[in-house]
Amino acid sequence: MLARLVPSSASASLALTRARLHAWWEGKDFDAKKLLAEQAAAQRRIAAEEARQDPRLLALAALWGAGRISPFGAGDEGEWLEDLSLESQDLLGVVGLGSEAAFRSLLERHPGPIIGYEWRKQPRLTVGSLVDDFMVEDTPRFACEAFDPEFSTLPKDGVAGLLVFETLAFTYDSSRFLKTIFQAIAPGGAVLLVDYLKATGTIRPSAFASAWAEANLQSLDALKAGLEGHGLRITKSQDVTKTLISQVKERLSTIEPEIAHFIQTTNQRGAGIAPVHELFWEIETWRARLSALQSGALSANIVLAKRS
């Protein structure tokens, strides 16, 4: 699964033929597998760099730090792994993380294979370059696949542990998605959901106006009922709202002096005004989301559930 390479058929075939003829002409051995791997790695690097120049990702990196798309859970990857209780060679599945920095942290902490399932195109392309940074005997220890939580399926009993990050809050058919999660976890495995939940009160629409999808928030009780209804036993439920509030307040209070530098650097790289618009819109959205968190209308939660 993790060693899958997907070269562009026409260009790869032509390059392969040219390389074969060149090797024959020079009297050298020809290694098609090595050439294909090099081509795939080059394609991943190009796609990752192009994605990093996306105005939205530039703005998010300016706000939350290089390689990150959210303040939620930053630096907590080690705790997540401890909760999942994985063996060193277990396969970890990760849904919706979308962050180079967070994926790198997980890969550095977990020596086994990791596969990412991403429902957002730009983040998926950026993390693709990590495939080449984490290898075991010329075999990738990391892979990333496109995934739609509304329609996609995951390999049955495919992972020992599953991390689901900021995905359930943007999934309309939550029952189907929870069934997909249950089927993907091997017996005895666990899922850790890191997400937003609604409580009581009003959440302004602008609180999620810059999100990658329209929010479909549910309560903690509804989430617990859904997990248990699909055969997943809850073993931990932690409200991390106060921590998130602290992180967001601190960052919003320090970002203003950096905006001028951001405008200058984006102009220098020829990115235009779009990243600046994205940054201001993201700041306004997070002010509204912060208000909902502080009022108690919205909460940030970590829920651990195990499959028997």
Question: What does the secondary structure layout of this molecule look like, with pairings?
Answer:
Layout (H helix, E strand, L loop, with lengths): L8 H18 L5 H21 L2 H10 L12 H8 L7 E4 L4 H10 L4 E5 L2 H7 L7 E2 L2 E2 L1 E5 L12 E7 L8 H11 E14 L21 H10 L2 E8 L1 H14 L1 H13 L5 H22 L2 E10 L1
Parallel strand pairs: 1-2, 1-6, 2-5, 6-7
Antiparallel strand pairs: 3-4, 7-9, 8-9
Helix pairs in contact: 1-2, 2-6, 3-11, 9-11
Number of domains: 2
Please give the count of helices. 11
- What is the terminal-to-terminal distance? 25 Å
Give the strand line-up of the largest sheet: 5-2-1-6-7-9-8
Keywords:
single chain; 308 residues; alpha/beta; Rossmann fold; seven-stranded mixed β-sheet; 47% helix; globular; disordered N terminus
How would you describe what is shown here?
The protein has 308 residues and is of the alpha/beta class. It has two domains: 34 residues, no CATH class; 208 residues, Vaccinia Virus protein VP39 (Rossmann fold, 3-Layer(aba) Sandwich). Helices cover 47% and strands 19% of the residues. It is built from eleven helices and nine strands. Strands 5-2-1-6-7-9-8 form a seven-stranded mixed sheet, with helices on both faces. It has a two-stranded antiparallel ribbon with strand order 3-4. The two termini are 25 Å apart. 36% of the residues are buried. The N terminus is likely disordered.
In short:
It is built from eleven helices and nine strands. It is α/β, with parallel strands linked by helices.
